[in-house]
Design goal:
Number of helices: 4
Structural class: mainly alpha
Shape: elongated
Order of helices and strands: HHHH
Helix content: over 70%
Strand content: under 5%
Radius of gyration: 22 Å
Largest sheet: none
């Protein structure tokens, strides 16, 4: 029984690492786009959304099943509780942040701002000092 539970914990760890790598990929794509890389595959961020949602659901289901079937205590309970907290944070980071970054870049592209130089820049700087 314990070996089965240990295998479930190992699989949980693998799925958390996979979700973390998806978050990293989405943020990396959005950051490249923000820097002005026109070849950044921004549509892929939206494609990752479905995969991350599915993975979040799978991890949450796995955690709940482990809690109900194994009734873990101490260390094992903390691992499962942390996993439940992490998936909600990773989902927010991996989906929300890249989309906000892309939105900011689109706004920047649609409303280019002039860069102030010379006396205008110094006058503006003086207002904030």
């Amino acid at each position: 029984m314990r070996t089965r539970f240990d295998e479930q914990l190992r699989q949980l760890n693998v799925e958390l690492i996979r979700m973390g790598s998806l978050c990293e990929e989405a943020i990396s794509i959005a950051a490249k786009f923000l820097e002005g890389d026109k070849k950044a595959p921004v549509d892929k961020v939206f494609a990752l959304e479905h995969e991350m949602d599915q993975l979040e659901h799978d991890i949450e289901t796995r955690c709940m099943r482990m809690l109900l079937q194994q009734q873990p205590v101490a260390r094992d309970l903390r691992i499962i509780s942390a996993a439940l907290k992490m998936i909600s944070d990773m989902e927010r980071i991996g989906l929300g942040q890249p989309i906000h970054i892309q939105s900011a870049r689109y706004r920047q592209l649609s409303c280019p701002c002039r860069i102030l130089t010379g006396p205008h820049q110094q006058r503006l700087r003086g207002n904030f000092e």
